[in-house]
Amino acid sequence: MVAEVAEKLVYLGIDDLPAAASLLYQSYYDDPLFERLFEHTKPDYEKRLRAVIREDLAAYWNTEQPIIGLFDGATLKGVACLTQPGDSFGPGRYWQWRLKLLLTAGYLSTRQILEKEKAIQQALPAEHCHMLAFIAVPPRYRQQGLGDLLLAAVKTALRESPRSEGVAVYVTREDYLDFFKQRSFEKINELDVSGLAGELLWFSRERLALEGLHEL
Prior knowledge:
- It is a single chain.
- The chain is of the alpha+beta class and 216 residues long.
- It has helices at 17-28, 32-37, 45-62, 95-105, 107-123, 146-159, 174-181, 205-215; strands at residues 9-11, 67-72, 75-83, 130-136, 166-171, 186-193, 196-204.
- The protein has a 7-stranded mixed beta sheet with strand order 1-2-3-4-5-7-6, with helices on both faces.
- It starts with 8 loop residues before the first strand and ends with a helix.
């Protein structure tokens, strides 16, 4: 289980979602992709971003997708959200989410988000895989190795899901690209989303097996 990776790594419950939403907002507020998707120059950018993050977390919870939290005592310091193998990621996912997204983000942002998910889904190297939708540590808690703990939990989720062939993540920031590539994620495609270049990275089950051998 994820809790075996570190004592303070847990699957979040429904009561933890407000704290997780606040943490994700802090972490993604100035992310270039989110700024493009949600038109950060508009005065209601913050309101729409908060609303979309809340709806995303609610959708993950309602469809039983893994939401991993990293606690220091009662303080939530990191979050990682995964979609499990199957049809839970992509532009066709649950119509209730699409409707709420339209109401909270607006037509243009909704269209761009669905186009992003379609492009990513078409570029995935395997039908059955995990997608790392969010991984976040707020700025004040960074440089403490917390990102590595979250990523270890993600790899544990992969290990415990025999049906999954790997974990994919879409990245647009150079510092995040460096983080993942230094941890055995490999570039498999370049994608342009809303005029912003990014890379689709992949961590395969085969790579996970190799890491397991190195630990023996």
